[in-house]
Write a structure and sequence with these properties.
mainly beta
Amino acid sequence: EVQLQASGGGLVQPGGSLRLSCVADGLQHHDYYAIAWYRQAPGKEREVVSCINNADATHYIDSVKGRFTISRVNARNTVYLQMNSLKTDDTAVYYCAADRAGGSYCPFIPYEHWGQGTLVTVSS
């Protein structure tokens, strides 16, 4: 059974930083998978924030480009999302997702495996 564990959320002031982690248990060959970070803010639809495919090609939504960085350490079955210069608009529950269609263009993948969310609150 595949389980994704997202962590690292919290309360941070505008301009601050957080690093989210997504650890995947039960995945055979973590390097085959595409991994994505989604977020859902209150009253808004869920959106893909960033993703990385099995060739380490990355994608970011425009609002986080230059501020967020996604990376993976396959030996640890872990994907990170480093979030810098956080804004109040970044407040949301962040989810990680994984799919074995790892070579596809990652924002278009219908991710099969989902973790529980981790809450990020950016507020002064």
